[in-house]
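Bug #77: duplicate submission created two jobs. Keeping one. Sequence:
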Amino acid sequence: MALHPAALGAPEGQGPAPDRHQAILEAAKQVGSLLKRQGHCFAVAGSVAVHAHGGSGRLQNDADFCVRREDADAVAATLTEAGLSVVEPPEDWLWMAKCLGQDIDLLFELAHEPVTSEVLGRAVELPVDSVHMPVLAATDLVWSLLASFSEHHCDFGAVLPIARALREKVDWERVREDCAGAPMPEAFLYLLERLQVIAPASGT
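Kept job's structure:
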C-alpha cells in the first residue's frame, strides 16, 4: 500500500506548526503497519518504545525500529514500495528513512550489539497510539540505554525518568548482569538504588 505523495516529505504550505510528538507517533504507526502487513520481524525502540510502555514526556526526535541486518534489504524494499525513501548513511549500524516528514531509523544494533532473533522474540505487543505492534521489551530497552553510556555520552538526567516509569517492568538483575564491569552503567544503577527507584542488588 503506497502512501499519498504529500505524506512522504515535510509538510508544505502555511498554517500552524505541527505537533511534533503526534507527528512522530503517526509516522511510527505508518511504518509499523507497513512492516506488520508484510510479515517483517521488527520491534519499536527508542523514545516511541518508552511511550508505548507508559513513559511520559513528549517525543522530539525520531522513531526507531530494530531489525536484523539480514532483513534490511527486504524491509527497505517494503518501505520503498510504499513511497518512502530509504538511505544508507556512513554509519554501518542503521539505515534511515522519511515518513510524514519525520525521521525513521532502522537499527541493526543496540548499544553496539547486533539486533538478534532473540531480542525481537522478547518484544511485546503494545499499542503505539492506536496501532498494536511489537515493542522492545522493557528490560532490553533500559539495558540499551544504560549500555550506551560512556565517558563521551552519559546523560543520566534523560534516562532517570525512563527508569522510574518502567521500573516495575524491568528485570534489574539481568540489567546488572549484562552491564557488569561497565563503570557508567554501574554508577547509574547505584544512583537508582540511592534514590530508591530500585532495590539494592541481591546479596549486598
